[in-house]
């Protein structure tokens, strides 16, 4: 049965100094897939190891269904864990690996073999139980690791960079498989990744960490559309951050003395004092060839600029445009024929934008 | 803000405590006792040591012999390593195995073999004498050069093994990259190959230096009147000048430990990670003449390498007392072996050696497995101390270890942790145990380092208790190292001579002591028969180790050809 995992005000230091995890609170609802995302050194793996019981947090509590398990040893928690390099036992066959957790629970041989084979079938590895683990491909090893963690029917499943050792093609398909499988089995899962695409594709909610602190937690859409801070906006997706002032539900985005007015997206934060940075994703801007060589007319709702670089990306072409007034922006456009040096007109095509505090927090 | 106490760190410390105590008591305490003994009369013994011309000469000779031995070992080992890794020819693999033989056999057997082949009354000298109708043997195998000769012959194996391993590991693409950048063969060797080999070469040279410094068998038997530190210690102890023996032991141990520290420093400074799948493609030398000549060179090398041991086999069938001035022993018989089997007095040393080696190695397996586990997979207070205690017996020459034991376990005194072991049966197993500690611990550490550390976490996370995790995960991972280390420790113990000669009693005299006694009474046949038996014992131990390893490794059989689990 899926459990509810709560990390409450966790702080952890390695040998004094700056905390690796700093006052982190996180709650996983039963059956939820939550991704911990952050750059390396952001404290995500430490958080995972604290949840698993491999590390003891200096401060704070770990709760399972409201019960304090902070001091409980890993083997007492009944969690499943998939390690980054899988940690498959090299001297055991695939089925012995999968059955190990059952063996540790004193389940007799025939029964544990039956359940191991059943779980292997569930991860698409039927008939490979007798193989040596080294004889499997990277993707298959990953699924053995998953089967080994799932066969013990864990209250919570923890995954440390489960996709990072797979090649790009396999990775794409495994994302979907993993999400389907975990939802089908109704497992509460916490998984760590440095790759936001992995996180967006697999997780129900994403928690973004930096320097051991939680910056924001929410659905992938929330993090993308309504970043809580400049750091989140910069880390998640691509964004051009342009100065803006907010008043009456509208943001006036000003570049080179020309202001464009766009509605502020509801539900987000509003910067203190009304001025901040508008978060403009590449697809929120459009580009067209300039009608006249000089600056655009005052009346138009446009900025003028010059193409610096272009990059063809299949469905769209991504342009790096320097606006008059000295602001660079990134635009994803259907227009294919603009070349570096061309004069262009830039519009905001989104209905609403998020505006974040200009100053970095922390 | 108070930190929560680290539960795992505390558990590791509790596990480490008995191991630390055992090693401190057996490894560190005797050395402390020796140093304390050397200061028994203040600096009196030390002044005596500095003033004694014999001791100054011994120290100087020890150092000279060590330097010359290093040079000799490099001259043999380095070309052999290149020949066997870089040139492809028939019989290359076989020669590779034979080339390690001199180090695999007990040093005393090697010395005896040399005596029979190259000695003053050995086969070669007698042959030359007969051929040229000389009155006297054309040479005597004695003095400085004889010792250096024996050292170079047995210790080149270190150079060969280290350098060959370095060459095998070396990424072939490095050489290819260098030639692609326009480097000629010689330039490539000087700027790429040699610098990459520096750690291996320096490491093996220091190993030879340390081994020569502590070597006892060769100077003891071939030294003639020559004084070196190890034999000087023995002489001082026999003559009752125990204070001098302590000073000499301290000087010898300090010299060896300095060499070890230097070795560690070099290893740390030039530790290149040779990435890539080295050895996959053999960089074949194409020079035609070398390839034609190589099999002959190799054949000659094999002959030279195994001839001394073949001599031992031959002499073991010679009737005692019959071989005097003839080139080869004139009469052959099976009596030597028959007597070993029938005469309980002659059988006794064999039983002693096997029993004592078994006890010592069993203790090594238990203590070193736990020590290696702690060192590789645990962080705890006292880790550095454990590391030091495990490495110490490797650096300290066997003579010094023996003197330490003699100085410490010579009376019962519970307050100072002393137990009377000198003169009892158990002093030798203890000495063997101490000598085996670094061998087994290092081998197990090597195996455990190759294990992905998250395996232990994985097992614990899946609900396995600590004992089950040890039994099902850690022990299997450590097994190759345990087997290899136990093999090495067992082989060393069963043929041990240097510590034994200081500590043995009539009741526990091992094979090596008996070989020496038989040589002294000119029973060459019996001495050789013991040596052959020792070689057979070593081969049996090796075979058993292979068998144990093979049985455990059957799982991995079909995995051998595919890349490892993690990069």
Distance, first to last CA of chain A: 39 Å
Q: How large, in whole angstroms, is the Cα Rg of chain B?
A: 25 Å
Largest interface: A-B, 41 and 33 residues
What is the tally of beta strands of chain A? 20
Helix content of chain A: 10-25%
Radius of gyration of chain A: 25 Å
CATH class of the domain at 44-105 and 132-279 in chain B: Mainly Alpha
What does this protein look like?
The complex is a heterodimer of chains A (about 350) and B (about 575). By secondary structure, chain A is of the alpha+beta class. Chain A has two domains: about 5-225, P-loop containing nucleotide triphosphate hydrolases (Rossmann fold); about 230-355, Nucleic acid-binding proteins (OB fold (Dihydrolipoamide Acetyltransferase, E2P)), CATH 2.40.50.140. Chain A contains nine helices and 20 strands. Chain A has a six-stranded mixed sheet with strand order 6-7-8-3-9-10, sandwiched between helices. A five-stranded mixed barrel of chain A has the order 11-12-13-20-14. Chain A is elongated, with a radius of gyration of 25 Å. Chain B has about 575 residues and is mainly α. The longest helix of chain B has about 35 residues, at about 55-85. Residues about 275-280 and about 555-565 of chain B have low confidence and may be disordered. Classes of the chains: A alpha+beta (about 350), B mainly alpha (about 575). The interface between A and B is large, with 41 and 33 residues.
Give the tags:
heterodimer, A: alpha+beta, OB fold (Dihydrolipoamide Acetyltransferase, E2P), 20 strands, B: 567 residues, globular
Question: What topology does this entry show?
Answer:
The complex is a heterodimer of chains A (362) and B (567).
Chain A (H helix, E strand, L loop, with lengths): L4 E8 L8 E8 L4 E5 L6 H9 L6 E6 L2 E2 L5 H4 L2 E3 L11 H11 L4 H14 L15 H13 L5 E5 L7 H18 L2 E6 L2 H7 L2 E6 L2 E6 L1 H6 L4 H6 L4 E8 L2 E6 L2 E7 L10 E6 L4 E5 L13 E11 L2 E8 L3 E7 L9 E6 L3 E5 L6
Parallel strand pairs in A: 3-8, 3-9, 6-7, 7-8, 13-20
Antiparallel strand pairs in A: 1-2, 1-4, 4-5, 9-10, 11-12, 11-14, 12-13, 14-20, 15-19, 16-17, 16-19, 17-18
Helix pairs in contact in A: 3-4, 3-5, 4-5
Chain B lengths: L6 H32 L5 H8 L1 H34 L5 H7 L2 H4 L2 H12 L4 H9 L12 H26 L2 H9 L4 H30 L2 H6 L6 H10 L3 H28 L18 H28 L19 H8 L1 H34 L5 H13 L2 H11 L18 H24 L3 H8 L4 H29 L3 H6 L7 H10 L3 H29 L15
Helix pairs in contact in B: 1-13, 1-16, 1-17, 1-18, 2-13, 3-8, 3-10, 6-14, 8-10, 9-10, 10-13, 12-13, 13-18, 14-24, 15-16, 16-17, 16-19, 16-21, 16-23, 17-19, 18-19, 19-21, 20-21, 21-24, 23-24
